């Protein structure tokens, strides 16, 4: 079982260098109450950042934490979701009603494992993914994402969705089919005024973007 090198971002920041070891992107879109995030992007869980960007498009709030080290990004930079306390991420999702977190897991199965405390949205996503011919599992798997401290559950509603994508899906032709199916669900969620900080779109990109 993997054990994180750092127990918090305060520890990580003390030992790793912004722009050399990791990059952070936080983009707020005031008209949206939805945040799409990946806490393990870049070379930590490959393709999750690209998928999150595609899901967010120009409509939804976006947060990426990306590993950009030459080696051992997962071993060095992975912080489990229940301890993921990067300040700009918490600031962004605190102003989002719904949070969708994109992750990757190593199985060769073409399966999408859905977790998180938002049972209604999770069920809607599962139905849409199954209609797009994906195997979508909402229970009985090893990534339930039901801890309230999980970063996907730390938006304004206190419940969100965690999405685990197999390595077979990420980077394959199925990736774009997944993005299209999930965006249909997110675009159908009723808008809520003031979803993020008012005052126009504000973007914060620190470090190198991938």
Q: Secondary structure elements and their pairing?
A:
Blueprint: H1 9-15, E1 22-28, E2 34-42, H2 48-56, E3 61-67, H3 73-77, H4 87-93, E4 98-105, E5 111-115, H5 119-131, E6 135-137, E7 161-166, H6 173-188, E8 202-206
Parallel strand pairs: 2-3, 2-4, 4-7, 5-6
Antiparallel strand pairs: 1-3, 1-8, 5-7
Q: Overview of this structure, please?
A:
The protein is of the alpha/beta class and 210 residues long. It has a single domain (9-189), classed as Aminopeptidase (3-Layer(aba) Sandwich), CATH 3.40.630.100. It contains six helices and eight strands, in the order αββαβααββαββαβ. It has an eight-stranded mixed sheet, with helices on both faces. β5 (111-115), α5 and β6 form a beta-alpha-beta unit. It is globular, with a radius of gyration of 16 Å.
In short:
By secondary structure, the protein is α/β, with parallel strands linked by helices. The chain is built from six helices and eight strands, in the order αββαβααββαββαβ.
Structural class based on helices, strands and sheet pairing:
alpha/beta
Q: Which sequence of SSEs, written as H and E, runs from N to C?
A: HEEHEHHEEHEEHE
Shape: globular
Corresponding CATH architecture: 3-Layer(aba) Sandwich
How many domains, in number, for the residues?
A: 1
As residue ranges, the low-confidence spans are 193-210
The major sheet is characterized as: 8 strands, mixed
Strand content is 15-25%
User: Ends: how far apart?
Assistant: 29 Å
């Amino acid at each position: 079982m993997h054990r994180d090198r750092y127990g918090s971002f305060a520890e990580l920041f003390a030992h790793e260098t912004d722009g050399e070891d990791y990059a952070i992107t936080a983009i707020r879109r005031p008209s949206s109450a939805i945040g799409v995030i990946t806490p393990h992007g870049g070379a930590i869980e490959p393709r999750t950042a690209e998928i999150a960007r595609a899901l967010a498009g120009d409509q939804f709030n976006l947060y990426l934490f990306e590993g950009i080290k030459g080696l051992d990004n997962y071993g060095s930079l992975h912080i489990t979701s229940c301890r993921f306390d990067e300040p700009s991420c918490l600031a962004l999702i605190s102003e989002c009603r719904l949070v969708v977190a994109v992750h990757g897991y190593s199985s060769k199965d073409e399966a999408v494992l859905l977790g998180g405390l938002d049972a209604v949205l999770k069920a809607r996503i599962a139905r849409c993914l199954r209609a797009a011919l994906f195997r979508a599992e909402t229970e009985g798997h090893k990534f339930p994402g039901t801890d309230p401290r999980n970063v996907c559950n730390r938006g304004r509603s206190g419940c969100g969705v965690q999405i685990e994508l197999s390595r077979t899906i990420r980077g394959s032709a199925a990736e774009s089919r997944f993005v299209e199916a999930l965006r249909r669900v997110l675009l159908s969620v009723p808008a809520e005024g003031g979803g993020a900080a008012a005052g126009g779109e504000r973007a914060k990109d620190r470090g190198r973007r991938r």
